[in-house]
Amino acid sequence: MYTIKEIYYTLQGEGFHTGRPAVFIRFTGCNLWTGLEKDRDGAICDWCDTDFVGTNGPSGGKYSAEEITKIITDLWPENQNSKPYVVCTGGEPLLQMDAEFIQAIHNIGFEIGIETNGTIIPPVGIDWICVSPKANADFILRKGHELKVVYPQYGMNPRQHEGLDFDHFFIQPMDGSNQAENIKRSEEFLAEHPQWKLSLQTHKILGIP
Questions:
Q1: Could you tell me the pTM of the whole model?
Q2: How far apart, in Å, are the Cα atoms of 105 and each of 24, 137, 208?
Q3: Under CATH, which number does the domain 2-206 receive?
Q4: Which residues, in sequence order, are CB contacts of 15 under 8 Å at separation 6+?
Q5: What DSSP assignment string belongs to 45-77?
Q6: Domain boundaries, the chain
Q7: Phi and psi dihedrals of 73, rounded to 5?
Q8: Which residues does the annotation mark as catalytic?
C-alpha cells in the first residue's frame, strides 16, 4: 500500500517539462522534515513549498498500485493527445516508490517522472529524473535528466554541482516572503553562469494546481 497526499491532473509548472499535461501523485512523507511545525527547528531541511502531510488532499488515501492506476486513468482526459505522463513528487516519493509501482504505471501506458531531493537511489525504469538537492542533506543521486536548484540556499553554491551527469541545469527562485529578492539574485546568478537556465513555478503564476 502507498500513502498518498493527493492525486490530480494539471500542467507541469516548472523545469524542463513546463506546460506538459501530467497527473501528479504527491506521496506523503519526507526524510528531511516531517512537515510539522513542531519539528521544523530540528529538520535537515526546514522549508518546503508544498504540504505533504497526511492523506487529505484530492484523491488522497492509502492505495495499492492497481488502485492508483485506476485513479490516474480516470483523471487523464480522453481528448488529450499527448503521451500520458505521471509526475511522482512529495515530500520524497522514493521513500515509497518501488518496482511494483513503476511496472503498474508503465503497464497502462504512462511515462513516469519523479521530483526527488536526491538522497535515495531510485528503482530502475523511471523515465525522467529531476533532482532538487537540499543544503545539508546527504546528496547521493548524482545523475539524472535535470538538476533543479531552489535558490538561494544557505550553505549551497549551485556551481558545486556543475560537473554532475545531468542534461539540464535549472535555477528556481525560492518561494516565500523574500521571493522578489530571490528572483533578483537568481537573475544575477544566471547572467554570470549561462550553463544554468531559469525555472519558474508557472502553476502558481497561473493559479492552477
A1: 0.95
A2: 13, 29, 24
A3: 3.20.20.70
A4: 130, 146, 148, 168, 170, 172, 199
A5: S---SS--SSS-STT-EEE-HHHHHHHHHHHS-
A6: 2-206
A7: -65, -40
A8: 24, 30, 45, 48-50, 115, 203
- Tens of pLDDT, residues 167-186: 999 999 999 889 999 999 99
**Is it the case that residue 49 has pLDDT exceeding 90?**
no
Please report the beta strands in the chain, taking only residues with DSSP state E, as ranges in sequence order.
2-11, 21-27, 61-63, 85-89, 111-116, 128-131, 143-151, 165-173, 197-198
Which backbone phi and psi does 87 adopt, to 5 degrees?
A: -110, 120
Q: Which residue has the cell 537556465?
A: 197
pLDDT at 36 over 90: yes
For the chain, the 3-state helix, strand and coil shares in percent, each to the nearest 5, are 25, 25, 50
Residue 171 DSSP SS3: strand
The per-residue pLDDT for range 88-126, each reduced to its tens digit, is 999 999 999 999 999 999 999 999 999 999 999 999 999
Residue 165 backbone dihedrals phi, psi, to 5 degrees: -90, 75
Residue 17 Ramachandran class (φ > 0 left, ψ -120 to 50 alpha, else beta): alpha
- Is the pLDDT reported for residue 29 higher than 90? yes
Burial bucket for residue 172 (CB in 10 Å: 0-12, 13-18, 19+): buried
